[in-house]
Design a protein that fits this description.
With 158 residues, the chain is an alpha+beta fold. 32% of the residues lie in helices and 15% in strands. It contains four helices and three strands, in the order E-E-E-H-H-H-H. A three-stranded antiparallel beta sheet has the order 1-2-3, with helices on one face. Helix 1 crosses helix 2 and helix 2 packs across helix 3.
Length: 158
């Protein structure tokens, strides 16, 4: 690969994706600004990310950048066009463990599930990993340590 992506970010005025990469031949750090054209607050972020990644001018530079990361960056740009601040957009990207996922829209639920899949794959232990243990045994606390739930007991006492 001729280019190694180091950092990726957004620029709000004009709306652009900024890529900091290392040129494989010269070993110099460079910056590439890729304008996001025909993008509005109603645009589909996944389609815009695919379009940018498959663009003939930008695709050699974006080989090391995942499509999910480009989708997140386009989401930040779309949120800015909708009037949200950067802090609000970034807070939305972090999952809230107490949030009820049943109340989310289908699009938001799909985005959260994709994020959970990425986290699962990142934390997954494979046979090739140095700290992989085939038959891992874990001691769980005894039943006395755990509290009982009200639904464990019926009104009849059984």
């Amino acid at each position: 690969m001729a280019y190694v992506a180091k950092r990726c970010g957004v620029k709000f005025d004009p709306p652009s994706i900024v890529l900091v990469y290392e040129d494989g031949k010269t070993k110099k750090m460079r910056q590439r600004i890729m304008p996001v054209r025909n993008f509005s607050k109603f645009s589909d972020c996944s389609l815009a990310a695919e379009r940018l990644k498959s663009n003939a001018r930008h695709s050699p530079y974006l080989q090391g950048v995942s499509l999910q990361q480009l989708e997140r960056l386009h989401g930040v740009l779309r949120d800015r066009l909708r009037g949200r601040t950067l802090e609000q957009s970034l807070a939305e990207l972090r999952p809230d463990p107490d949030q009820d996922l049943n109340k989310l829209s289908d699009e938001e639920l799909a985005r959260r599930k994709a994020h959970m899949d990425v986290l699962f794959e990142r934390n997954r232990k494979r046979r090739d990993d140095p700290d992989f243990v085939y038959d891992l045994e874990v001691e769980f606390p005894e039943a006395d340590d755990r509290g009982t739930c009200s639904w464990d007991e019926s009104e009849d006492g059984f």
